[in-house]
Specification:
A two-stranded antiparallel sheet has the order 1-2. It is built from one helix and two strands, in the order αββ. It has one domain. Helices cover 34% and strands 20% of the residues. The radius of gyration is 11 Å and the shape is globular. By secondary structure, it is α+β, with helices and mostly antiparallel strands.
Length: 41
């Protein structure tokens, strides 16, 4: 179950990468809020 959900999230991110590049967005298809956090070095 978790692996299937992770696959859905990964596929969605691959298709909508440009939509979350500026911060976050709501994915109604997966019922999740996704955001991008800057990498800390």
């Amino acid at each position: 179950m978790a692996l299937a959900k992770a696959t859905q999230i990964y596929d969605w991110l691959a298709d909508h990468e440009g939509e979350i590049s500026g911060g976050g967005c709501y994915c109604s298809e997966l019922k999740l809020i996704l955001w991008q956090q800057p990498k800390v070095s």
